[in-house]
Amino acid sequence: MEEILEIIDLTEEGLGVGKKEKRVYFVSGDVTVGDVVKVKVTSEKRGVILGEALEILTNSPYRDVPRCPHFGYCGGCSLQNLDYEQQLVLKKTKVYNIMKKIGRIDAPINSVLPNFAFYRYRQKVHFTFGSSQNKLAIGYFDRKNNWFPVTDCLIADKSLVEVAHYVTEILDAFKLKAYFNDAGVLRHLVVRKSSTTGEIQVVITAVKLNFNVKEIAAKILLNPEIQSLTFHENPKKTREVFGKGTAVTFGTRYITEELLGISYRLTPLSFFQINPVQAEKIYRIALDYLDLGKTDMVFDGYSGVGSLTLPAARIAASVVGVEEIRDAVEVAKTNAKLNGIANVNFFAGKVEEKLPWLLKKGYRFNKIILDPPREGVKKEVLEEIIKLNPERIVYVSCNPATQARDLKILAETGYYPVEITPVDMFSQTMHVENVVLLKKK
Ligand SMILES: C[S@@+](CC[C@H](N)C(=O)[O-])C[C@H]1O[C@@H](n2cnc3c(N)ncnc32)[C@H](O)[C@@H]1O
């Protein structure tokens, strides 16, 4: 069966969405918002209709020329064929719809803050090792979840891709094979760059470190850009990059990044925003929403290496950060010392366990920062926060769907979103970072 459809939206996975007579179609192929497309319906199961674009009958006025050689099948970017201004419009509509549908929230949503470098903005890339033409190669997963070799990644800083190829060639010369599709040991390659110092950090993960890491490291470190190199053993049979296995580091253990005038040491396994320019904007908005003064006692849940904790501590009376990765907590403490910030305390553990523990110990907070991973905040954490009766809550999220779910719980107890600002951290993809201020009515 064939249909003629106008594409009115895009899914996270890059499928075009079309509607006809109250039926919703999900269309694969090089389609974008505004295209009128002839579609071949390929399956219909429980009301989900999938189709393939056969022909674009009218090109969208918002079409742009994709720049990446892997566009169309790469699972990473799905918006490269859409004009950047329209990407921002699409993201604002996405946040609005999610907030309304999942959160039942009607708060004002500001325009999405643009990312002026909407290509080559990533300062961290993560490749999976595989093999191509009988050689070790770096790759990503496509929209059907199949691995493919990557020559370039247009949203990543160019030097990160170059370093990734350089490291892969050395590993290949040592006859190492990919675990993923070649029954070898190598799993992932993570390359991160400091936007302030230009230092590069490389992490190679393997199921077993049963090869001569010392000799390989000596070769890799001949590249003067690479300051920090870690081999990390992760025997877990999942696609997770880092596990609990051992790590061996050569060169320095950290690279240094600077945001809002504060320096951060970034260790191999600790989280840091991949787009420092946009991260700074997010932190500025979060601090502005917190409206900090000299008497404020702040709780920063999911604090990473302290990138919101430390700027908040510069203004507030005290800030407590809780983060589950012990290594990140150690680095956060060092970061506080290095920057001469003494009114902070960092605790290692899960927020859901550490927050009740802190309250039992007598800690009190009147302002709350939440910056959780994609899964959002556990209900019991929200309940503890409500009991604290804070003046303001600032919730930063890279997943508006779980954020809207959590905002609904907070709204039911009287904390309403006062202002919502989406920020474009991940141009060319459907992802959006969202900062929300909540206050009691
Ligand atoms: C989105 S990051 C935010 C980090 C930091 N605020 C920043 O902007 O760099 C989320 C952090 O939460 C940590 N995390 C994940 N689940 C956690 C939990 N249940 N309790 C505490 N920390 C957690 C992760 O390790 C990660 O560092």
UniProtKB/TrEMBL annotation:
The gene is rumA. Belongs to the class I-like SAM-binding methyltransferase superfamily. RNA M5U methyltransferase family. Residues 1-55 form the TRAM domain. S-adenosyl-L-methionine binds at residues 273, 302, 323, 371. It comes from Carboxydothermus hydrogenoformans (strain ATCC BAA-161 / DSM 6008 / Z-2901). NCBIfam families: rumA (TIGR00479). The keyword Ion transport does not apply. Keywords: Methyltransferase, S-adenosyl-L-methionine, Transferase. GO terms for biological process: rRNA base methylation. SUPFAM superfamilies: Nucleic acid-binding proteins, S-adenosyl-L-methionine-dependent methyltransferases. This is 23S rRNA (Uracil-5-)-methyltransferase RumA.
